[in-house]
Design brief:
heterodimer; A: 578 residues; alpha/beta; six-stranded mixed beta sheet; 22 helices; B: mainly alpha; 13 helices
């Protein structure tokens, strides 16, 4: 970038951050001289994995530093620079800028809106605080205007609603309306669509794009999701542990990345077509046939599939050449499974079966009943009606009523690794619990098995005496998987196990699961909301909507030829790049 | 692949906040509280051992006429040495208070955890019963029990302990309620770990923060109650040396011989203020990672 173009940019920029450095209270620098400029009407995406400092950089633009961080150094100047360096402003001047000139959309709308205040009133509050419009009627006019802009109804009745009367997507749009209400020149968006379903996400992204364009607002979009970046951003800055390692136009960064980290990050994003190789084991696509043929699949007679370039041959690949016995018997059969919370029917007549060594994805958005279904199978939810059979024998409803052998056969991995391990117990203790409960009393034997399980998930012996607090999210999830594997189960139920993790960590977990599946001929129920993972993990796919299975078949059948309009809609809204 | 992982993993390993006790002790008021508490504890624990050697008298020996200035701090209403009685009178108070607190904690924590964990009807039943007990003033309840059973040490400990239990149960229940929704509890249930074991190994270690605060608070109250009951003549009985009893016996001669009252009063006050300061800073440390900065 020549100095010439730099100067012209500075004159037209809405916000210019130079050499931003932030330290923790303990004196560890976590942001090492980050610089970027925002231009009116354009959106810069700040991309990075957790801990890369992207949120810290975003908040620093508003002169805010989270607890535990010392005030940063460097300069952040707005527009023509008349406000001076934001980082040097006293609190009362900062307060005048925030919301009016530079506004913020936080990640979770459910937490950021005041639950006891009507939404119209909440938007009007920002206007009143910044004295935009003199009278109540002017405020009301503006509130109605911004609500219409974000595509919400703006009548009085709607304005009188409370946040809990809105859906997640509507709440986030109210948050965006609030941020745009004072017509700011800069807006910082901190992962505003992370908790939303793909369909809702598409609408929210479109809203942000339109508003930024119409009001010539400069946007800083903080995210970890590269597919979202492709849709919304004009420019991308990739962050890695406190540094911007690559910065450029979206097309250039995403389609011809220069930095090695960007390339690796891009390679870790699962794609719907399954073309990209996430992790070392290939995705499951038409060219790379199934490990074990599904009921509708063609038996795999092509033998071993060639591994591409640097991938090391895995011990499990030998199994591919010899598919399981000619007549695979159903491992799990679910028949007419129903469950309701009071009036609300969560599951409605679910039926499917799963073969030995087969992996099936249960796809559904929040509220579709996918977690309830997986918990019924694992015996964590005992209030269902219908039957669940394992190896042809009907299972008792709750885990405590099931035999210890049945409990051993079905293992469940929880969504959040941050809550599924007891923070006060060591990894070895947590992983050893299933062994203890299945009657292995000998401590030394237990330790040996725990070590083996930790080896399987590629956590070494050195993790045994650590506590979850010392582990990263990915390591914790591996430990949780080790707990499920330690008893050699026949069926592994994975409930959204990668949704709390970064893409690169997700890739390594997917890799691990595929290896385990081929090595141990284990069946897997993989519950997720992310359709892009389908070809990377499952041979069969079941789409769940409002407690019913609306589409089921081999992954290719469902993705290439979706029968239900809901599946078609999902496929249409998947944010993709390339 | 591995390089991406490494980079991410490094980013996560930011410096960890210091442990609970370290956060507590770096607050100035915790240091003050610790000094005050330790000073009184030292007097109470070491006092009885030093007795005839240090003052030349035991705590029940008559050394002179009532309310004269024989000895360092004079004599009490029966002519016993005040300093000897003071040195001898703290240990029982502290032991009784500690036993009562321990009893209350065990009962209260067990009840609270069970109620929160069983939820539904059992929870409602236990907690409403709890509310009924809470409605009775602690001191009135203690007076009643002591009048019926007589003023003996075990009655004192049991009555104070039992009246603490409902209060501790409340705190335990709310602390447990926030922990039992965690997935690791669900995981243990999935492995059919016995319920008592889940409570002991999964829940209890995770609610020690609020329980420590409650322990400190109840210890302070226990000291106050034992002293108050002795003062009322329902706790320790004469001729035992006891701070509460000393205050009662010597209060008639406050002007003539103030040391008989002032020494035990000061000791009890310093002890309760000290434990209170400690508890306060512990509460702050468990609520705020940056306490004391």
């Amino acid at each position: 970038m020549s100095t010439n173009t730099m100067e012209t940019q500075v004159t037209t920029s809405a916000l210019c951050a130079t050499d931003l450095r932030v330290e923790t209270d303990a004196g560890v620098e976590i942001l090492h001289g980050v610089s970027f400029t925002l231009q009116p009407g354009r959106i810069l995406a700040l991309v990075g994995e957790s801990g890369s400092g992207k949120t810290t950089a975003g908040l620093a633009c508003m002169g805010h530093f989270r607890q535990g961080l010392a005030k940063g150094t460097g300069t952040v100047s707005l527009g023509g620079g008349e406000a001076g360096n934001i980082l040097d402003l006293p609190d009362h001047q900062l307060r005048r800028l925030r919301g009016k000139t530079i506004s913020y959309v936080p990640q979770d709308p459910a937490l950021s809106l005041n639950p006891s205040m009507r939404i119209g009133e909440q938007i009007a509050e920002t206007l009143r605080v910044h004295q935009i419009g003199a009278t109540d009627s002017e405020h009301r006019l503006r509130v109605a205007e911004v609500l219409a802009e974000v595509g919400l109804p703006n009548d009085r009745a709607y304005q009188r609603r409370y946040p809990h009367q809105l859906s997640g997507g509507q709440q986030q749009r109210v948050g965006i309306a609030m941020a745009f209400a004072c017509r700011p020149s800069v807006i910082v968006l901190d992962e505003p669509t992370t908790g939303l379903d793909v369909t809702t996400q598409a609408v929210v992204l479109q809203t942000i794009d339109e508003l930024a364009e119409r009001h010539q607002v400069a946007g800083l979009y903080i995210t970890h999701d590269l597919a979202v970046v492709a849709q919304i951003a004009d420019e991308v800055a990739v962050m890695l542990s406190g540094d911007i390692v690559e910065h450029g136009a979206t097309d250039q960064v995403l389609y011809s990345p220069r930095h090695g980290y960007t390339r690796r990050l891009l390679a870790a994003v699962p794609d719907l077509a399954g073309k990209r190789r996430v992790g070392q084991v290939e995705a499951i696509t038409g060219e790379q046939p199934l490990v074990v043929p599904g009921p509708h699949g063609v038996p795999d007679t092509t033998g071993s599939t060639a591994l591409v370039d640097d991938a090391k041959p895995l011990s499990g690949t030998g199994h591919r050449a010899t598919p399981a016995a000619a007549d695979p018997h159903p491992l799990l059969r679910v028949r007419d499974l129903s469950h309701s919370y009071g009036e609300h029917q969560v599951l409605d007549g679910i039926g499917f079966q799963l073969l030995e060594g087969e992996s099936m994805m249960l796809l559904g958005e929040s509220g579709s009943g996918k977690t309830t279904l997986s918990r019924c199978v694992a015996g964590l939810n005992d209030a269902y009606t219908g039957s669940i059979e394992l190896f042809g024998e009907e299972l008792a409803t709750g885990t405590r009523a099931r035999s210890s052998e049945d409990r051993r056969r079905i293992q469940y991995v929880f969504q959040s690794p941050f809550s599924s391990l007891n923070p006060r117990r060591t990894i070895a203790e947590s992983v050893g619990v299933p062994l203890q409960m299945s009657g292995i009393g000998d401590k030394r034997k237990r330790r040996a098995l725990v070590r083996e399980a930790l080896d399987q998930v590629k956590l070494g012996e050195r993790f045994m005496e650590r506590r979850p607090g010392d582990l990263s999210g990915g390591e914790r999830q591996r430990a949780a998987i080790a707990r499920a594997l330690v008893n050699a189960p026949s069926l592994l139920v994975c409930d959204e196990i990668t949704s709390a993790l970064d893409v690169s960590v997700q890739a390594s977990i997917l890799d691990l699961l595929r290896t385990l599946q081929t090595d141990h001929n284990m069946s897997m129920l993989f519950v997720t909301h992310n359709i892009a993972l389908a070809r990377h993990i499952s041979q069969r796919l079941a789409v769940l909507q409002k407690g019913k299975i609306v589409d089921i078949g081999t992954t290719d059948e469902v993705l290439d030829n979706p029968q239900h309009h809901y599946t078609q809609e999902l496929l249409a809204n998947v944010p993709t790049f390339k | 692949m591995s390089t991406v992982d490494d980079a991410v993993e490094q980013g996560v390993a930011v410096s960890r906040p210091p442990r609970l006790l370290a956060r507590m002790m770096r607050q100035r008021q915790a240091k003050v509280g610790m000094v005050l508490t330790l000073a009184v504890l030292l007097v109470a624990l070491a006092g009885p051992l030093l007795l005839p050697w240090l003052t030349g008298h035991t705590s029940t020996e008559f050394t002179g006429r009532p309310f004269t200035d024989t000895g360092v701090f004079g004599t009490d209403n029966l002519g016993r040495d005040v300093l000897s009685r003071f040195l001898d009178g703290g240990l029982r108070l502290i032991i009784y208070a500690a036993l009562a607190t321990a009893l209350g904690m065990v009962v209260g924590v067990a009840v609270g955890m069970t109620a929160a964990y069983s939820r539904g009807r059992v929870d409602a039943l236990v907690m409403r019963g709890n509310d009924v007990l809470l409605a009775l003033p602690q001191l009135v309840f203690a007076l009643l029990a002591i009048t019926v059973l007589g003023p003996q040490g075990w009655v004192l400990v049991v009555v104070i302990g039992i009246t603490h239990a409902p209060r501790i149960a409340r705190v335990t229940r709310s602390a447990t309620a926030s922990v039992i929704t965690e997935d690791y509890i669900r995981a243990s249930e999935m492995y059919a770990v016995p319920k008592w074991k889940i409570l002991l190994t999964e829940v209890l270690p995770n609610i020690t923060g609020p329980l420590m605060v409650e322990l400190g608070l109840r210890m302070t109250y226990s000291i106050g109650f034992v002293a108050a009951l002795s003062f009322l003549g329902l706790g320790m009985q004469p001729p035992t040396a006891d701070w509460g009893l000393m205050i009662n016996e010597s209060r008639i001669a406050l002007v003539v011989q103030p040391w008989g009252v002032l020494l035990p009063v000061a000791a009890i006050a310093v002890l309760t203020v000290g434990t209170n300061l400690l508890t306060d800073s512990l509460a702050r440390a468990s609520a705020n990672m940056n306490a004391g900065k």
